[in-house]
Amino acid sequence: MPNRRKVFVTFPVLPSVRALIHDHCDAAFNETGRTLAFEELLARVRGREMLMITVSDRLDRASISRLPPCVRIIATYSVGHEHIDLAAARERGVTVLNTPDVLTDAVAEIGIFLLLGAARRATESISLLRNRQWSGWSPVQLPGKQLSGKNLGIVGMGRIGRAIAHRARAFGMTTHYCRQSPLASSEGVWHRTNAELLAMSQFLVLSCSSSPSTREFLDCAAVAQLPTSAVVVNVSRGDIVKDDALIGGLQSGKVGAAGLDVYKNEPQLDSRYFDLPNVFMTPHIGSSTVEAREAMARNLLEGADAIERGGAPKNRLT
């Protein structure tokens, strides 16, 4: 089919996603099992109209300036786009697409999973069993915290934050949030300042995007404002947390537990987390469901189709 869009995919995909891309495009894939060096990527993308990348592919201004003129669309298989210089792409006339909306349910579910795992001391419980050290039931064994009746503070009350709040209400939690203007009263309790929000947050979920105003939001000052033994969960970006502050809080008991799916400098996260039994960790799997992965690919392909028809897709960043 001579008019099929030519796309190069830089990352491994599920078989069902590969079939979906093949159905829509003349597709070539990176089969090396590793992130390509930029020179390798340049060689593979020649003659291709669309470059499908993910967060491990960094496209700064210099990289974008060297892309062949045939590349008209950069489609990132992610919601986040910090790895792409959007201004440089715009100046070059390259459209950038991402995958908003389709990850909401998957990430909200991992948020609840981390809340439960951190609150109920899952790391210690799993270690006790897997190390064959469990001696049987005891009324004083690993007492955790119930979610019911607790205040849940959410930093980033967007789609994902609201989806987490919706699920948390089923556990009997009261949602608190801070933003410029309040949402409907059914969404939770509005606070004018982050200081007010933190002071109420027996549980705190970070679900905001990474920006100059949110990076290292959870610093020593923020930790100090939390109730003693608060539980902190991060499903946003690793750089929202200042590692020294959170680790210090976990070591002192000011923070009772943490549930983390994202990390600064991942996968080279701060090694001190591994030694803290009150940290429940997952390896950035927030969006890792079959349904979400397929929806992400479909979202990018539909966006590219809309551009070809002269439309304005919702997932267009430039």
Number of individual domains: 2
- Please identify, by name, the CATH architecture of the largest domain: 3-Layer(aba) Sandwich
What's the helical proportion of residues? 25-40%
Name the CATH class of the largest domain.
Answer: Alpha Beta
**Treating each run of at least 4 consecutive H or I residues as one helix, how many helices?**
11
Structural class: alpha/beta
Spell out the CATH superfamily of the largest domain. NAD(P)-binding Rossmann-like Domain
E-strand count: 12
Order of helices and strands: EHEHEHEHEHHEHEEHEHEHEEH
- Intertermini distance: 29 Å
Low-confidence segments: none
Kindly identify the CATH topology of the largest domain.
Rossmann fold
Describe this structure in words.
The chain is of the alpha/beta class and 318 residues long. It folds into two domains: 5-100 and 289-308, Rossmann fold (3-Layer(aba) Sandwich); 104-281, NAD(P)-binding Rossmann-like Domain (Rossmann fold), CATH 3.40.50.720. Helix content is 34%, strand content 16%. The protein contains eleven helices and twelve strands. It has helices at 15-24, 38-45, 61-65, 86-92, 104-119, 122-130, 159-169, 194-200, 220-225, 243-252, 290-308; strands at residues 5-9, 25-29, 50-53, 73-76, 95-97, 151-155, 174-178, 189-191, 203-206, 230-234, 255-260, 279-281. The strands form two sheets. A seven-stranded parallel β-sheet has the order 8-7-6-9-10-11-12. Strands 2-1-3-4-5 form a five-stranded parallel β-sheet, with helices on both faces. Strand 6 (151-155), helix 7 and strand 7 form a beta-alpha-beta unit. Helix 1 (15-24) runs parallel beside helix 11 and helix 5 (104-119) crosses helix 7 (159-169). The chain is globular, with a radius of gyration of 22 Å.
